[in-house]
User: Fold this.
Amino acid sequence: MGSKMWSHWLLVLVQGLSALLALLLRLGAPGFCRSSQAGVGVCVCEGPATLNPPAGTEYCYRDQMAFRAEFSSILIYILLAILTVQGSLGTLWRAQGLAHRVGVLGLIATVQLVLLLVALCLPSGLFVAVEDFGMFAAAAYRVLQAVLFMDWAYNLNDRLYSGAVQMRQRLVSSDAYSWRLHIMVAASVLLLLGSLAAAIFLCMHEPEVIWCVVISFIFSVLLLGVSITTWCEHGSLMTSSVMLAYNVYLCHQVAEIRPDSAAPLEDDDVPTTLYGLLVPACSLAYFAISSSPARHLAGRSAAAIDDDDDFDSSDFLLRCGVHFLADFYVTSLLAPRVSWLRFNVRAATVFVCIAVYGWTLVAPKVLSNRSF
Assistant:
């Protein structure tokens, strides 16, 4: 594994460690705060509790633990960005030897744990003060996550289709080619049906957000229709199916924080929280191996795997920024805040993601005179 790929997975490790610490600390927060001194920063709650203020301070304790765990990784990303600008990090990752690189990973994990211990003593008001910024940062990552899933779907479709074409060229019979296309279509249809079922379920159980679900679903279906026409040079049924499923997922997140219907997270909601974390885990893991997912915004496919393994400081800085935003997104999953402003921002994010996907479909026509 080259230095660039190692640096990419370093960022994923930091993100995963902070999420794991946040989950563990969140579970043990009430007991820790009840047995500790009242002056400990994490146990002095300021601001509203997570979803239901009358529920008591236990939810506040859990939130504050999650804030501090994610805050430690935010500081790590800032530190890595500073070292990259100074040129120190590139020297570390270009060093040869697996033992050396593992040692660097261990050092960064140790620093992250130390930062977490320091953060536990910081006043809660410090984290409450940045909640509004975190709300918009989390929304920005939701859009970036849509780009990542879009890139994955485009590349998967390209690889499967090119493989089918190669099979038709190598074999006298076209049966293998047809079967491969049938599998692609069947997988897309199953994903569409699953998205439809999830949308119906969401409308039945969360009627307050039926407008968001229905409107976003209609726009997504319209884009799906455009993507499978001969006019659209860059569309595919599979990518449209993936984006439709992601939009339904975003609508579910909108319903979770509606002020007049939200309920506080309970201890037995840990499996649900883990399910929610699985989505950013998949997107960030793919981001670690992807080369340039943003190229799809210009209507052009990009290779999913980057063949250049040399450390790239500008690329690493960009990835630090993406993980920086991802921290706020993970925090919004672990410690969701409820307000009409947050509800409206999440709802708007659904339609921004739809617009971004729509742009990838029309970009080759709009930018027809540009050489990619």
Observations:
- DSSP finds twelve helices and no strands in the chain.
- Residues 131-170 form the longest helix (40 residues).
- Residues 48-56, 264-268, 302-306 have pLDDT under 50 and may be disordered.
